[in-house]
Amino acid sequence: MSKNDAKHLEAMVSVIVHGLQEKKGINIVSIDLRKVSSAFTDYFVICHGSSNRQVDALADGVEEEMRKTLNERPIHREGSENAEWVLLDYYNVIVHIFSEEKRNFYSLEELWGDGKIEYHKD
After folding, report:
1. What is the pTM of this model?
2. Which residues on adjacent β-strands are paired with residue 37?
3. What mean pLDDT is reported for the chain?
4. Is residue 65 within 8 Å of 15, Cβ to Cβ?
5. Closest CA to 102 of 63, 43, 47
6. How far, CA to CA in Å, does 109 sit from each of 46, 63, 66, 88?
């Protein structure tokens, strides 16, 4: 991976985190998976919302920030119907936005604990 690729990845994570912070995402973490051999992406960004409405708004906020700032659109979005777990796939960065209950149930931070976890202020 070139320096430019690494810088772009870091910019993506930064913009995603900012989008989540703007919509009051709770317990925002990013997990750098680049050194995890079984990983299928470079980063996860994870947070949760206090309601299904907020979960959906968080996803919309990320999409808007990414489009405005980096002209990036997700290649896939799923979970908006129930808004308990919305996934935004930016190929190298996957965003997981949960309800608190679903986040505790799936515990992605524990599953992918081999990655480098960074905690971001809400």
Report:
1. 0.94
2. none
3. 94
4. yes
5. 47
6. 8, 23, 23, 17
